[in-house]
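Troubleshooting log. The previous run stalled partway through. Resubmitting the same two chains, unchanged.
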Amino acid sequence: MSLADVPVSLMLLGIAAYIVLGGADFGSAFWSFTARGKLNREIREHTHRSMAPVWEANHVWLIFVLVVCWTAYPEVFGSIFSTLWIPLLLACLGIIMRAVSYVVGGVAEQRWVVVLSAVSSFIAPFALGTVIGAIVSGRVPVGNAQGDLFSSWLNPTSIMIGLVAVTVCAYLAAIYLAADAKRNGLDDLSEAFRKRGLLSGVIAGVIAAAGLLVLHNDAAMIYDGLDSGDGLVAVIVSAVLGILTIGLLWRRSYELARFCAAGAVVAVVAGWGFAQSPDILPGLSIDAAAAADNVLIGLLVSIAVGLMILIPSLALLYGLVLGGRFDPGGGWAGGEGVTKGAMSTLLPPGRRKVVIVLAIAGIGSAMTFISSGGAVLYVGVALVMAALAIGFVMLAVTLVTTATQD
Amino acid sequence: MQALSFAVHIPLVCFGIAFPAMVVFMEWLGQRTGEAHYTAIAKRWSKVMITLFAAGVVTGTLLSFELGILWPGFMSTFGDVFGLAFGLEGFSFFIEAIFIGIYVYGWDRMSPKRHMLAGIPVMVTGFTGSWMVIAVNAWMNDPSGFDVVKGEVVNVEPWTALFANGHLWPQLIHMYLAGFIVVGFLLAAVYSYAWLKGRRGAYFRTALVVPLAIACLAAPTQLLIGDWAARTVADDQPIKLASFEGLYKTTEGAPETILGWYEPDGTIKYGIEIPKLLSLLAYHDPNATVQGLDTVPEEDRPPINVVRIAFQTMVGIGTGLAALAAWFLFVWFRKKRLPRTKWFYRAVVLAGPGAVAALIAGWVTTEVGRQPWVVYGVMKTEEAVTGAEGIVFGYGALVAVYVVLAAATFWVVRKIARTPFDDEIAALETGPPPADNASAATQGGDDVSR
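Second attempt completed without errors. Output:
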């Protein structure tokens, strides 16, 4: 594996994470829409509650993938986006509609919101699936808008992958929601989602198996890659995990099923990577597409630093969510929100402090204004900003604590 | 199209920059004093914050799509030069998303100290995220860190390109302050309106004065920082400066012309001319020479009137806001009370949208002022755009979507504002409520309607 391969591996990881986390969000919108009968309302509330704390974080994965792509493989990014702008735009519209319905759904329950979210939760994964289909079937030539506007993404492979994406999203969502419901002691709901999960799991499995036939006829390159070597291993791992997930779901081991299903997705995405390498687009190898080494190193260093902060943060978030801290009744043991015994009064700052801060601001302003560059200027700006921050706290405290006749 | 997207995204960015700091400050006040109305404000604001953040996530996602859909030429040529910044920005955004989730859903679910700690990463990443994006923009204004050999971009030095750039700091601090001004005045506008309607209990008074405090300190500071940013432009992008001012001929001791309309022959009609002021402002020397538009061929000049009017709008509103701030601070320091006249509160109500207008005008100034270049002096905008057919329909669809998104966000924020206080206050009853809090709570039932 050369340096040029590292970013693409990270992109695949990002795609897998987006499917596993963001995809479940689209799926949950689907289940909200199809909810009927006496569980209708409960299902909707439950899906919203489960998603709310993690919604934003889940959708950032997609941005991660795009950013890595344009930094590490600028030409690939330009080619894909100019040829496939229609499905990408559709995906984008889908994501926006999902966001609108999600945000509105947080405070209101209207039918149009549910319909909107269902439409969007179909469009977004489907369109992104067709994009992947276009790439794997070699329909994105290198260059600015060189591919066909429609047949590049409306073809058997694209449509098949689009459908797989939609069902997988629904399937993942059902598993997670079943797990969340069980943790909350909502047995009716977890049973309901178990049924949905089993059904959608079988459908996803059937489409995926049929998909291999489509690939055989329509995207021979990738099929060969999946039929041999590491690609084959990945396919088998994915299939085994997929079946295992359904078994776990059957036995009501939802938490395990959650991770197993995620594993199956990761395996498929890895298989795609193995099958497609060494080319990233037809006639363009990963090595040739990659940016210069120092750019890649810069990118990887920043990703590494980023991950060092990101991973513990994500662990904290998912730990809190999976630990039930955000569930109804999952309150803080220490009390009801207000700090006890913190009745100390705030006092406005004295005249001396005000004068000091004003002096700092004055000196800083003078330095900024007079200097045309160099250390004097930057120190000046730093002083101004520091004075501003301290001044804000002092002024705000004064304003809120001083009793006046206004 | 990208323009529209940015126009929608930028005010949301402001909230990302400034809002967390205000919310956390409110929470700190609440924890420090134990008084319930501070915490109630912080909670309510945090809900608005996450709504706007979700809208920001979406418009941000859309922007990264658009970069590809609309600017494949730009991205495939320079993606490697500035992509790094977006990578770091992505991480900032990610961390922000995580902690905003923890913060907003973590009220009463974790110890108050830890909860407040969770707000700090949100503040920090709001800053770092905008830092990275501004780094890219600064690079577009003052490109460096690469060589062009036979039309190919080689020897890319992303770190130098992005972070050793003279435009970065003035642009960043200018933007950062703009964030506080916009959010401060917008919030103050909402509560000023409530004030005019007679809602003046502890809750409303606090929610008014805290944003007002930050906006009134940031607005005058912005004049100073704006001066710095303008001097940077004068040094590195003389044509941009000349188009701010509509200065046709290179002039020694150039005058500043206010208002008016730039004519194609290089004169300004109906303008008010102040001798030597431009040289004084741009170079702090009344006799400095200012380069004119005639030094470059016509096709290398931006659309003068757009830039000029945008620039004057920004400066005009900015100065107005600073004056309003000075009024407030003056009354406070002389009389230790808020201004009494209704005109002050009416002015603040206007200052909210006014600050947004200035923000967008400022953005038009810097972006249109750089035209016809997308990367100043290196790549023209026409080389950067997509070659795909039918993209116009894409524009139409996006415009429609933005309208829906804006309407939905507005509706939700309003809905949050109208949620009765009962639950929150009931939860707060366990802490000893201050004497006048009950009145604030009952008044809160039908919150501001803006």
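Takeaways: The CA atoms of residues 146 and 155 of chain B lie 5 Å apart. Chain B touches chain A through 117 residues (CB under 8 Å).
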